């Protein structure tokens, strides 16, 4: 398989090396942006090129080596930032590319060309050029909930950058999909904060779903914006040798997470089954409220009625961590109970229904929800009975309790016998 080096500028912090020694540095040749250099370097040699670039310019570097692998090291103020190796791709005629990087104010940039490891060296071609960072057809500003279509990664140095203005606490999922049936691997993206002093990366690296599937098949997972400000989304064609380089069209959606139920009242009706809601897409969340007498006991049931995976969770507040889960697939509603929980002193509790996870192949589809109030009173008849008087009752749902009372004379020895009707379980 042909190999390609496509290093990301954002990895620079992890790749910093010690400053190079001026005593061993070769003569430096000054070149201009967009100037293509063709030369030759042999084992034990190194060639340095210096270049002046306007701050704020996005640039990329292309390196070709038709004979033997050649390494290009990029220095900023004499500290190595990143390197790429050309020569592994010459079987298919493609050079190595450095993914676009932003030139900073007051920084001196230098490129060193040398044979790779113990290679013999040979001819090389070098081009430092302005990077293509603008989307081809969509504005660079993006809104959460806006579907991006018609965009393309046209070549190895093509990166589409979008900007969003987001508010702290805002939630969304990221869906990216290749629209190239013959080449779906290698398409990636990530989210970078542009807020001064804030961590550079939101937990937002994501990969693309294949063209044959759905837009949300490789969903990143719900992202919560940590700080109000501006964020940059970069879509690029790959960076890893074994992935190859993606080129072709794609789709992108920042799917907003709305915690309100889509078609049902927020307030659950005790004892009634909710049957009109669904997890509309990966990352969707529905939050309901359940009200009752403080201290009353409850059990909650949930059922995912769509196709597998039936991985859905209904969480009952945070006061005791009770939750009901349907992950078995095909189990009936009353087969998926939560632990028993007590209504808090406020008389109300939040119930949050969501997929078990919000990334990759998560559940999408309808669900049913049932909150059952538990009563200690028998469902039929009087709770009091006498000696030698048989009584009958039923445990209606998981967690149901029946309490009976009986008057027994002092010093009386009694025997209590409980029997289940034939064919019942428990």
SSE blueprint and pairings:
Layout (H helix, E strand, L loop, with lengths): L11 H4 L12 E4 L4 E7 L4 E5 L6 E7 L5 E7 L2 E8 L9 E7 L6 E7 L5 E10 L16 E7 L6 E7 L4 E8 L9 E6 L12 E2 L15 E2 L4 E8 L11 E9 L16 E7 L5 E7 L5 E8 L7 E5 L6 E4 L14 E2 L5 E8 L9 E10 L9 E2 L19 E2 L20
Parallel strand pairs: 1-3, 26-27
Antiparallel strand pairs: 2-9, 3-8, 4-7, 4-9, 5-6, 5-8, 10-17, 11-16, 12-15, 12-17, 13-14, 13-16, 18-25, 19-24, 20-23, 20-25, 21-22, 21-24
What does this structure look like?
The chain has 426 residues and is an all-beta fold. Helix content is 1%, strand content 39%. The chain has 1 helix and 27 strands. The protein has one helix at residues 12-15, and strands at 28-31, 36-42, 47-51, 58-64, 70-76, 79-86, 96-102, 109-115, 121-130, 147-153, 160-166, 171-178, 188-193, 206-207, 223-224, 229-236, 248-256, 273-279, 285-291, 297-304, 312-316, 323-326, 341-342, 348-355, 365-374, 384-385, 405-406. The strands form 7 sheets. It has a 5-stranded mixed β-sheet with strand order 1-3-8-5-6. Strands 2-9-4-7 form a 4-stranded antiparallel β-sheet, with no helix packed on it. A 4-stranded antiparallel β-sheet has the order 10-17-12-15, with no helix packed on it. The longest helix has 4 residues, at 12-15. The radius of gyration is 32 Å and the shape is elongated. The two termini are 60 Å apart. The relative contact order is 0.11. The model is unreliable at 1-24 (pLDDT under 50).
């Amino acid at each position: 398989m042909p190999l390609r080096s496509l290093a990301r500028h954002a990895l620079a912090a992890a790749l910093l090396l010690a400053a190079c020694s001026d005593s061993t540095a070769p003569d430096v040749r000054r070149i201009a942006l967009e100037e293509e250099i063709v030369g030759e370097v042999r084992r034990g040699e190194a060639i340095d090129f210096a270049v002046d670039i306007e701050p704020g310019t996005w640039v990329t570097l292309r390196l070709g080596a038709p004979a033997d692998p050649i390494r290009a090291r990029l220095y900023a103020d004499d500290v190595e930032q990143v390197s790429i190796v050309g020569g592994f791709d010459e079987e298919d005629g493609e050079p190595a590319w450095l993914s676009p990087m932003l030139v900073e104010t007051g920084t001196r940039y230098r490129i060193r060309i040398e044979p790779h490891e113990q290679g013999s060296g040979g001819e090389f071609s070098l081009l430092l050029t302005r990077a293509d960072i603008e989307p081809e057809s969509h504005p660079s500003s993006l809104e959460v909930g806006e579907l991006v279509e018609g965009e393309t990664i046209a070549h190895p140095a093509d990166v589409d950058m979008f900007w969003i203005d987001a508010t702290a606490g805002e939630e969304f999922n990221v869906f990216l999909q290749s629209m190239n049936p013959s080449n779906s691997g290698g398409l990636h993206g990530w989210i970078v904060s542009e807020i001064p002093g804030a961590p550079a990366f939101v937990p937002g690296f994501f990969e693309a779903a294949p063209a044959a599937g759905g837009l949300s098949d490789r969903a990143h997972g719900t992202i919560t914006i940590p700080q109000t400000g501006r964020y940059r989304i970069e879509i690029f064609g790959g960076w890893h040798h074994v992935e190859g380089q993606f080129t072709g069209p794609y789709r992108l959606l920042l799917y907003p997470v709305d915690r309100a139920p889509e078609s049902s009242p927020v307030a659950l009706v005790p004892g009634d089954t909710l049957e009109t809601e669904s997890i509309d897409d990966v990352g969707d969340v529905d939050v309901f409220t359940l009200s009752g007498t403080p201290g009353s006991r409850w059990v909650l049931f949930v059922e995912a009625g769509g196709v597998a995976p039936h991985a859905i969770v209904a969480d009952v507040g945070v006061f005791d961590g009770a939750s009901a889960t349907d992950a078995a697939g095909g189990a009936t509603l009353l087969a998926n109970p939560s632990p028993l929980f007590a209504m808090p002193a406020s008389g109300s509790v939040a119930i949050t229904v969501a997929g078990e996870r919000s990334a990759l192949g998560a559940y999408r589809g309808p669900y049913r929800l049932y909150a059952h109030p538990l009563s200690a009173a028998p469902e039929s008849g009087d709770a009091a009975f006498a000696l030698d008087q048989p009584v009958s009752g039923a445990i209606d749902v998981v967690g149901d309790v029946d309490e009976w009372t009986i008057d027994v004379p002092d010093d009386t020895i009694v025997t209590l016998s409980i029997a289940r009707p034939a064919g019942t379980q428990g």
